[in-house]
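Progress report, Aim 2. The chain analyzed during this reporting quarter is listed below.
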Amino acid sequence: MKVKVLCRNPDDYIRETKKDLHRVPRNYDPTLHPFEVPREYTRALNATKLERVFAKPFIASLDGHRDGVNCMVKHPKSLATVLSGACDGEVKVWNLTKRECVRTIQAHEGFVRGMCARFCGTSFFTVGDDKTVKHWKMDTPGYGEEEEPLHTILGKTVYTGIDHHWKEAVYATCGQQVDIWDEQRNTPMRSFTWGVDSISCVKFNPIETYLLGSCASDRNIVLYDMRQSTPLKKVILEMRSNSLCWNPMEAFMFTAANEDYNLYTFDMRFLDNPIMVHMDHVSAVLDVDYSPTGKEFVSASFDKSIRIFPADKGHSREVYHTKRMQHVISVKWSSDNKYILCGSDEMNIRIWKANASEKLGMLAPRERAALNYNEKLKEKFKHHPQIKRIARHRHLPKIIHSQAKEQRIMKEARRRKEKNRRKHSKPGSEPFVAEKKKHVVAVVK
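Predicted structure tokens for the chain:
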């Protein structure tokens, strides 16, 4: 005769200490949980509300500059180090963990127009209004040593931007033309010109490292191949681009910050129209920087705010501003994907969280599990009207709010005018032009 008995191991459900929780066996059969969806909806609603309650993105302000912060650069090897250049020619090296300036250099006469760090992190380059390119050691000079550059190159014209190659001892400067320099030489290896206007920004591609992109003041975005003697191609937009940034994960994608309040993400193989037009700013966009994941980027604007855009969406997911912050000139996303730094007109560098409601510091395993669960719930119910409304709501300064409203009215008026013109014209004579195609004037190869 067989006898079957129930056998329960007390270790599976009895707690070991008083602080442990009882382990409760759970049956996942959906028929036993008829109110699971309403319960999850309530939890998602509460999680969304709490996210907005805890959204306090501002961390710290680094003050010490005596003029507006014109450019910033991240240290390629150290997360805690960032360099900034000001409009009075001063360069400061900051320690972000201590939130203090560790070194100050009077680098140039006039503006510091551009900075870049060497890929190994041992030195950095600056260019300024005094027509010089200066090469500096990253380490603070020892006792009794002079604070002097390793190398100085005096050019014929003002240099407006600089960027270093990601793998080789080569850097590029821009001004009236784009010059490619070897670190060991005093004259450029190669110079690119296309048109006669000044170039404001030049950037190396982090993946296809021999490719460069530049923004010129005659509304062009020009692409170059370092191995060739002539530029590759250019796209002409309706207004001037102030800066561009390559996507660190997708080799052919770059985003340009434009004077017409928008940002344009292009695929360099198909420049006829942008992949995405990112609209939300109410004034000229001055700088842009990608997150290390390549999924998002941050933009700095003349409208005294910074915005975080998903790379594949047309509208921002976050907007940061403070009462004291003026026109934001430069912005950087930290290499660990957690922080954003912005430098503005009123001499301050501000540190923000990339996720406004993220808790900083160590998380207990149960705390992390709860946060992950809440994220999944918010993702599941994000299209419900109530949750969508709470998640989208942002407080904006009155001036941005009123300008955004004015722009909506103008855009609606233009759309109505187009519609009326099409309605009263011969069929086919007024073709419908997509929003993406409206901003590109021409592509020249």
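The longest helix spans residues 398-423. The mean pLDDT is 92. These observations will guide the mutagenesis work planned for the next reporting period.
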